[in-house]
Amino acid sequence: xxxxxxxxxxxxxxxxxxxDFVSYPYDADLAASYVYALGKEMSYQxxxxxxxxxxxxxxxxGGGTPTVxxxxxxxxxxxxxxxxxxxxxxxxITVECxxxxxxxxxxxxxxxxxxxxxxxxxxxxxxxxxxRLGRIHNWQExxxxxxxxxxxxxxxxxxxxxxxxxxxxxxxxxDTLDRVLAxxxxxxxxxxxxxEPDTPLHRDVCSGYLIPCDEELELEMYWYxxxxxxxxxxxxxxxxxxxxxxxxARHNLIYWRxxxxxxxxxxxxSMLEGRRFSNVEKVELYINRLNRNESGxxxxxxxxxxxxxxxxxxxxxxxxxxxxxxxxxxxxxxxIFEIFAVQLKRLSSLxxxxxxxxxxxxxxxxxxxxxxxxxxxx
Length: 378
Prior knowledge:
alpha/beta; 2 domains
């Protein structure tokens, strides 16, 4: 079966106030050492992880901010992927971009190296909301990033948004969506803000400097984005994701369908042949290990049958199409009703899940309560 590849680029010009991902301030020398170590890890994994005969159907460069690297470095990463792995001719190859870190030359280089999709972190239109989130771009840079992506030959552009920002009004959310739609993206991700512990945003909320978004207002924003985007030709295919027909994020579908993938770079996670493993987080340690021809892997775990079943169910429920019950039974030799009879009866009685077209799905009532539903299967 084909796999996906995720590559973590752990550098940012400035870490956002809400971000708890592993990232470090950009340093040119450290970044160059990271790119070299990344190439070594790809070769190491090829030999030691039994992945040499697996076709790659998607590649995703995420971060951090991948586009703080030079165009040459990004192109080299993609070229190393092709040298080490059997990348399908029609593979989806995505590079995350932040406005203000891309230009026509950089985008042209990564397009020539095989990237065919960009995911641009927009988050909001209003400058005061961007500042509250710790973003360092402005709307003009968003427009430039989209325009330059098109000029470089990208016909698959995804834009990321956040709602439920402290102080954000419904009017501001509608205005952001109107302006994003005018950019004609093929894909939009709209995530409600999670205030993670030990982030600047969390400290601002705890101190009383910022007041979290009201839950009812956040729910209103969620229902609005669903109605607005589906009313404008987008398919709502995952809890927080919308696409023009046929432009669903193929790489993310690998995760939601509980398929296999390899992760490269500091803190990157992998799932291969029933084993989950992850790399060390510190970029210097990652570089040193690879330079000594050692593995960057820090933790690994063989998943039990019960763990694989649990993950298959709650990940599949993230998709609006739901979990294919025939495929589930074929994979695990039992129907979902034999394994989770009590949970399904309870969730169904609460109106949170339904069976439709032989798929288990979240109901409209269940969508905003998805995490509570997922907890029933863990």
